[in-house]
Amino acid sequence: MATMADVARSAGVSVATVSHVLNDTRPVLPHTRQAVLDAVDRLGYTPNTLARSLVTARTRSIGLAVSAVSNPYFTEILQGVEAGALEHGYSLLIADPHDDPEHERKVVQLLHERRVDGMIVAPSANPGDLLAYLGRHGVPAVFLDRLVTTPADGTLAYDQVCAESVEPTARLVTHLAELGHRRIALVAGRPGLSTTRERVAGYRHGLAASGLPHDERLLVHGNSESADAERATTALLSLAAPPTALVTANNAMTIGALRALRERGLSVPEDMALCCFDDFAWADLFSPRLTAVAQPSREIGAQAVQVLLDRLASPDRPARTLRLPCTFVHRTSCGCPEGTARSAQPEQPEKFEKPEKFGNREKFGKREKGTAS
Fold it and tell me: Are 260 and 233 in contact (CB under 8 A)?
């Protein structure tokens, strides 16, 4: 079996240089680096990861705690995390917290006990125990997709990576309003999640921007799950004055809403216009094809890895929130004729007359902030 000394002799460099190349502990000239990597391939050298971790106190592994990994959105995020980790020579340990705060704390502890260098976590709606554990043990962590509440002093404790939610949701509502709908309902996600709060805020903002009143009866919660969304949609259809258009706040709830409409014998968009947050691979295969907001899920995962590695390299740097832009995918479930629907393109910046509490966010664009929105 080849040793590091064998690699050094073959590449014509010192053992220390080989170590710096393999461990990224010091910059090495590009041609020297390539010579070492060529020697590694030529000799079939395999680093002793366990021995290296004992010396460096690093395992070059990342813990990922994400619920509902069967959801296509989170599956694509996982693919982004995995690709980003592999690109930088890190392995990945995955756990599913099942959106349960107690189980969340347990799986994070298990990942920590396996000496991961840092964690990427999509927190539950009540992440108090999670935050306490991470803080008590000083675990480097990045929150993914779902944000945690900013402390009263406005100082972030952890880095966060997510997509924009407020303006994209408002865009769906204003589009439906432009088509003449006056009773537009929202099937929102699990209460307590930042994604739910922001999409509800976007819904209300879209109504206000369109000059429509907000009817609390048209805002229901599908708890981010198909079955609950089906029940919530059925309740909307039972109103004396049911909605004529529906916005669903994630892909699982879109399926539930469609089931409820089918059970009532209603068709989309003839009886109910539909727009959804979250695009997915088969949305274009539905009849009608689903008008949706598409999140950059793989990029979210890859960016979370990069932000975590930045944190590991500079532990004292200020925490940041990175928001990535979404895309408005115009198809036909909203009621637009086939010829007017556009293929997926990055949404152009749109300005809204927003209440002051929404700040000055006027586009879907990528932003970094030192405080959470």
Answer: yes
Mean pLDDT of 88-100: 92
Joined together, the tokens standing for residue 158 give: 């952890």
Q: What's the N-to-C CA distance of the chain in angstroms?
A: 54
For 164-218, strand residue ranges (E) read 184-188
With tokens 């300005």, the residue in question is: 351
Contact 141, 134 (CB under 8 A): yes
User: Residue 50: pLDDT band by 50, 70, 90 thresholds?
Assistant: very low
CA distances from residue 160 to 53, 150, 222, 277, 301 in whole angstroms, order as listed: 27, 11, 25, 20, 11
| Angstrom distance (rounded) from CA 3 to CA 25 | 19
Cα separation values, 315 from 118, 155, 219, 310, Å: 11, 16, 42, 8
Going by C-alpha positions, the residue among 39, 28, 118, 120 that lies closest to residue 77 is: 120
Mean pLDDT of 32-58: 71
Distance in angstroms (rounded) separating the CA atoms of residues 68 and 100 = 11
Phi, psi of 160 (to 5 degrees): -140, 140
The CA distance from 190 to 246, in Å, is 17
Note whether 113 and 139 are within 8 A (CB).
Answer: no
- Angle, helices 15-23 vs 4-11, to 10°: value is 110
DSSP state of 321: E
Per-residue pLDDT of 120-142, as tens digits, reads: 999 999 999 999 999 999 999 99
pTM for this predicted structure: 0.77
Query: Residue 49: its pLDDT value, please?
Result: 52
Task: Name which of 41-55, 109-123, 299-313, 356-370 the model is least confident about.
Answer: 356-370
Question: Pairing relation of β-strands 273-277 and 345-346?
Answer: unpaired
Give residue 78's Cα distance to chain centre. Answer: 10
Residue reference for tokens 């929202």: 186
User: How many alpha carbons fall within 13 Å on the CB side of residue 248?
Assistant: 35
Predicted confidence at residue 150, as pLDDT, reads 64
Show the tokens assigned to 251. Answer: 């892909």
Instruction: State which H helix or E strand residue 158 sits in.
Output: none
d(CA 70, CA 50): 32
| Beta strand residue intervals within 66-179, DSSP E | 91-95, 118-121, 141-144, 159-163
The SS3 assignment for 101 reads: helix
